[in-house]
Write a structure and sequence with these properties.
Length: 212
């Protein structure tokens, strides 16, 4: 019937206009996951009788989750880890003197809020770098910026800044950026290669008489 044909055409045109507007708005917001959710979830929302607020929250949750995931990956890449290791992958059987509950607590990143330092001490091959990278990746995923380097690389960076007359600026850059992590690792030698790493937490940088 003519009347029904006109209604169908109008509905189709409205749907196309809505899709175009949705694409424009989500591009302006740089929210592709929001666009995908808004296109994929309406059928489920109708089937489950979601309110408008529930539908909006579901769409926004997907966008936030996507941004957190992408942001974490970007921070991990920017940190320049030599390899990826997680706390879950750490072999506590190889480091029997290290307590699981201590590492689990460090994994909550409470020491960041408390503005404390974490230091892993032990001979080579006991997992210090693994634990440092695992914590650093956890921090990246939590939204913190991380910088990873060996002690030699940090010394070289600061020495270069000193020779260029910008040491103070470099120190400020490293020390005053909000929520900035710096993970230091160095090689060492020891007669005992079976002693597991130990962990200490301190509110100020640890003193050391070891060669720099």
């Amino acid at each position: 019937m003519p009347g029904r044909t006109r209604t169908t055409a109008k509905t189709s045109t409205t749907a196309r206009d809505f899709t175009a507007e949705l694409n424009f708005l989500t591009r302006a917001l740089k929210a592709p996951s929001l666009r995908e959710a808004a296109q994929r979830l309406p059928e489920r929302a109708r089937a489950e009788n979601w309110s408008h607020e529930e539908f909006l929250v579901a769409c926004l949750q997907r966008e936030v989750s996507a941004r957190e995931s992408h942001g974490g990956e970007g921070r991990i890449r920017s940190a320049r880890f030599p390899y990826r290791k997680s706390l879950e992958e750490f072999d506590f059987g190889h480091a029997r003197g290290l307590k699981r509950d201590v590492i689990a607590h460090l994994g909550t990143l409470d020491f960041v809020t408390a503005k404390e330092n974490v230091v892993f001490l032990g001979p080579p091959g006991t997992g210090k770098t693994h634990l440092a990278i695992g914590l650093a990746i956890r921090a990246c995923q939590a939204g913190h910026r991380v910088a990873f380097a060996t002690a030699a690389q940090w010394v070289s960076r600061l020495a270069e800044a000193h020779h260029a007359g910008r040491l103070q600026a470099e120190l400020i850059k490293l020390g005053l950026q909000p929520a900035r992590f710096s993970w230091w690792t160095r090689s060492a030698t020891s007669r005992s290669r079976t002693r597991p790493p130990t962990c200490s937490s301190n509110s100020s940088p640890p003193a050391t008489n070891e060669p720099r």
